Amino acid sequence: MNAPERRWPTLLRGRGNVETSDLRHDFTASLVVFLVALPLCVGVAVASGVPAELGLVTGIVGGLLTGLLPGSSLQVSGPAAGLTVLVYEAVQEYGLPLLGVIVLTAGLLQLLMGALRLGRWFRAISVAVVEGMLAGIGLVLIAGQLYSMADTKAPSGGLEKITGLPDMLFDTARSGSAQAAFALGAGTIAVLVLWRRLPAPARIVPAPLAAVALATSASMLLRPPVAKIEVQGLQGAVQPPDVADFGELAGVGLIGTVLAFTLIASAESLFSAAAVDRLHDGQRTDYDKELMAQGAGNTLCGVLGALPMTAVIVRSAANVQAGAKTKASRVLHGVWLLLFAALLPAALGVIPLAALAGVLVHAGCKLIPLAALRQLWRGHRGEALILVVTAVAIVAVSMFEGVLIGLALAVVKTAWDTSHVRVDVIDKGAGPIQAHLTGNATFLRLPKILDALEALPQDRPIEVHMSGLRHLDHACRTSLENWAARHSAEGVEPVRVNARPEPGPAG
């Protein structure tokens, strides 16, 4: 057992002594994470087309349940901007009651994958696909929330959201109320961008909270005609799924949505865990246990009819930077969210929707990996192409299909990169011509192999040596047999194929 483990609180570890300094750091960090999480939980819920309280429910479960479970000790879970687009599409297509079925089933799949020790395999997903997924989500999120900043209903499709922006801006310029709402949203974005340049004492207040608080204060003072958050209370918002709703899982479309939730939520959580591990020197993440912790949280969120959860890098980074030492900080942040939802839910009703839209536009911009794209373009243009195609496919088609297209491209690129083959022709002028094949002969390189063999003279005997091949797939083998049969039919000596290693020189 290492030193950090010995200092974990007895409540959470079941052994060891509580150090006052650790608890003090964890308490302070939990307040910081709570202040960061509060506007994001509400904003993600509103952008997803569900009651604001459901975002708080997911944040509470992420703290009180997932926060207690083993896996990654310092990363924080809750509703994430990365799933906003997918949740919105699911709610629009299937309705809010079926959201619980989708989230619960995705959580059970995560538990199963964790039990089968598949968590580590998510690290094998192409980084370009993940970055492209986040970029596509970011583009759709930005486009959709720009409409919300103007208190305007956004089109349903991702491509329609982007192409409709010029008309939306033109309509906003002609409407006083839309201009007021857009100004609040733009001011929120400005505060988020400029907050880091303020003196350190001022930055004690997290930027999202400060931006929303300032926008809310301006709205209360100036009283512009802008839309506010509708508050129902926790009891009115929570809608557990009925048993009859699970019969909808027989539909192919709903199953595809569940798989998309599972894949994206798991990948985002485990990639976040890897990023958080680089921020601290404490205990490393157990990916399988973390996947099970996320699964347990999503299962409970599904039972409550709430939003899906993932590990969220913004909250996790704030937790580490605030000095958290143990998982007590993330559990306490869930306690503060619960107290706020139980005691002060009416406080949400004064927040302008445009302010939350501004927070999510800023979050969407951070999802677009421009620096990573530039780096990939300089060194790995194939990976950069996968990133761009994945993002464009998500915008143009849908989340699930876009990710599948990205994964397919990554597999094809990997197969192409690993299927190098050489065809060396040796012609001594007399006797048979020798063709030596080395490398991996797959169908992707079949045109190159056939071009080289078909260019050989038709009136000479030929020997094909395949001892240098590490792999020969069925397509190549069949094509080579067909070529040999055609060449042998020309009336010359039949093609000889040597598939065994050639003997070395005599000693």
From TrEMBL:
Annotated Gene Ontology cellular component terms: membrane
Ranges annotated as spanning the membrane: 27-47, 54-74, 94-112, 124-147, 176-195, 249-271, 291-314, 334-363, 384-412
One Pfam family in the UniProt entry: Sulfate_transp
Subcellular location: Membrane
Membrane as UniProt keyword: yes
Domain SLC26A/SulP transporter: 23-390
Membrane topology: Multi-pass membrane protein
GO biological process: transmembrane transport
InterPro entries from the UniProt entry: SLC26A/SulP_dom, SLC26A/SulP_fam
Keywords in alphabetical order: Membrane, Transmembrane, Transmembrane helix
Protein name per its UniProtKB record: Transporter
Organism of this sequence: Embleya hyalina
